[in-house]
Design a protein that fits this description.
- The protein is of the alpha/beta class.
- Helix content is about 40%, strand content about 15%.
- It folds into 2 domains: about 200 residues, 3-Layer(aba) Sandwich (Rossmann fold), CATH 3.40.50.720; about 100 residues, UDP-galactose 4-epimerase, domain 1 (Alpha-Beta Complex).
- The protein contains 10 helices and 13 strands.
- Bound molecules: uridine-5'-diphosphate.
- The site of uridine-5'-diphosphate (UDP) has 15 residues, from helix 5 and strand 8.
Length: about 350
């Protein structure tokens, strides 16, 4: 809680109506901060922040960070979480994804410079590509296919990191970079195409679970509240570490193991079906979080078994409330369909 004599901080959260962003809005409001939530609703949704709309310290602004609205009031902190993050969503309009990462981050950094606001960039474990070093430490330079279908996101985020560190070196912005590993929890889009949302929606609907490739590939899954705590700690740490920090849960699971865990939550699930592995799908991923532990005294608290139960309960409640969810498309999917028609 904030003490009475502490000044109220104004925090701008770009991508604040998204899955992670909306939880970050909640956490800053709970701390007594004023939150300006900026979102283009390309993959974010007003549903995620609807309970906050009447909060006196909450302001929702529709804006695409590639062409950012002006903000006159003083800002203390700016988070950039504005980008589609699921492979099918960020590949739906890859040029938009790349420009969001590069032009959008550039615009937000300029805003941070004008306001002398602390800045946090949501980067990604995708900067390591299909890693040949395991687990991934921040000094590993990665193995990205710079011309493949994931490049719009991987290279976009790498370029955004470069912009941040150029601003830090020039002493223009106190920018911090979080490399976020796979995150899950309530408010994931049911149709965003990621593994945990896909498998939970399939299990709840009584459909077989889709495994891409052999299912021997691994991921490390962090529950959203753990990630939000890490993001806030990195934003506040003083002095600015001036280097990227991995945020993720080091527990590593094969996709097959994850499917078994979900089947055990929904015993009537009719088994699994195998589908082709998407191009450039990383084979292994696990964060080395020693830097975050040392600098931020942070480590995840929620084990996968518990986080899955909480996420499953949320999906069950949400899907039973809105039957049309399965057919609802995101703006990113609408844009992909429109681009296909133009071609
Ligand atoms: N995956 C899967 N079935 C699905 C969705 C994803 O087997 O229905 C696999 C995907 O090929 C990848 C892993 O699960 O190996 C994680 O995929 P996700 O899209 O969640 O995130 P990524 O880590 O690839 O960005």
């Amino acid at each position: 809680m904030q003490s009475r004599n502490e000044k109220t901080q104004t925090v701008l959260i770009a991508g604040g109506a998204g899955f992670v962003g909306s939880h970050l809005c909640d956490a800053h409001l709970a701390r007594g901060d004023k939150v300006i939530c900026v979102d283009s609703y390309i993959t974010g949704s007003q549903n995620n922040v609807r309970p906050l709309l009447n909060h006196p310290n909450f302001l929702l602004v529709e804006s695409d960070i590639r062409d950012l609205t002006k903000f006159d009031e003083p800002l203390d902190k700016i988070y950039n979480l504005a980008c589609a993050a699921s492979p099918p969503q960020y590949q739906a309009d890859p040029v938009h994804t790349m420009m969001t990462c590069v032009a959008g981050t550039g615009n937000l950094l300029q805003l941070a410079e004008r306001h002398q606001a602390n800045f946090l960039q949501a980067s990604t474990s995708e900067v390591y590509g299909d890693p040949v070093e395991h687990p991934q430490r921040e000094d590993y330079r990665g193995n990205v296919n710079c011309t493949g279908p994931r490049a719009c996101y991987d290279e976009g985020k790498r370029a955004a990191e470069a912009l941040c560190f150029d601003m830090v070196r020039a002493a223009r912005v106190s920018a911090r970079v979080a490399r976020i590993f796979n995150t899950y929890g309530p408010r994931m889009l049911p149709n965003d195409g990621r593994i945990i949302s896909n498998l939970l929606v399939q299990a709840i609907s009584g459909d077989p679970l889709t495994i891409y490739g052999s299912g021997e590939q691994t991921r490390s899954f962090c529950f959203v509240s753990d990630l939000v705590a890490g993001l806030m700690a990195l934003m506040d740490v003083d002095p600015n570490p001036g280097m990227p920090v991995n945020l993720g849960n080091p527990g590593e699971f094969t996709i097959k193991e994850l499917a078994v865990m979900i089947e055990s939550l929904f015993p009537t699930t009719p088994g699994v079906v195998y589908r082709p592995l998407p191009q450039d799908d990383p084979q292994r991923r696990r964060p080395d979080i020693s830097r975050a532990q040392e600098l931020l005294n942070w480590r995840p608290q929620i084990p996968l078994s518990e986080g899955l139960q909480r996420t499953a309960a949320w999906f069950e409640a949400t899907l039973s409330d809105s039957k049309e969810f399965g057919s609802r498309r995101t703006k990113a999917q609408d844009r992909a369909a429109a681009l296909a028609v133009e071609r």
